[in-house]
Amino acid sequence: LLTGLMLRSGNDAAVAVAEHVAGSEAAFVKEMNAVARRLGLDATNFINASGLTDSSEHHASPRDLAVLAHAAMTHERFADIAGTSRASIAGHGTLESRNLLLNTYDGATGVKTGYTALAGQCLVASASRDGRELYAVVLDSSDTFADAAALLDLGYDAFTVVSTAGAVAEIYRTAWGTIDLQAADTPARTVPADAKVRTRTVLVPTPPPQTKTGTVLGRTDLVVDGRVRASSPLRAMGP
Q1: E strand segments, the chain
Q2: What is the pTM of this model?
Q3: Segment (H or E) for 79
Q4: Residue 13: pLDDT above 70?
């Protein structure tokens, strides 16, 4: 059912899954809207399980669909189906995914096509390259696959990920000895590829003589185009 739902937009499968999981489609829709609220999808409201409706009460924004897709793709079974271009189903033969990017875009991993007369041609697309996972959403498009591919290309070509990894001071030398330091984390940010990026370590000028494990002795900053985009405290690893 899930394979037919995802690969061929099986509206009958959507209703069957909803009834099996929640007892009725109406009860399942309540769960859908509850999940939407938990995810902060403020522009989203569902009135049925399949999305097959021309009612203006059933709606979502591009941002909401990207957040929802990202949350769904964290589930391994969902991600496997969303990334499958062809599947054989007993009694139904071979199903081909409507998401043509799975066979044409380098690194494509999902997610879902969609169409109604009111919404037009829609696509939520995802791809993974060199450890970077990107999502693109197009609604009411005249060429969903080309538009989504262009957005993904923009994400990979015009932006990069930077972090403070490898730029953290490891030792604080004092008059009475040395203290090993450890960053609480190594924050990363997505920035324009041509951004001026630097890291800096700021230490407290005089650490207390009785420094305890975990004492904050400074911070490491990620500075992008002259503005601090992320910071992480530096803590003493021992007394």
Answers
A1: 86-89, 93-96, 108-116, 120-129, 132-138, 159-163, 171-174, 177-183, 188-192, 197-203, 216-224, 227-236
A2: 0.84
A3: helix 76-82
A4: yes
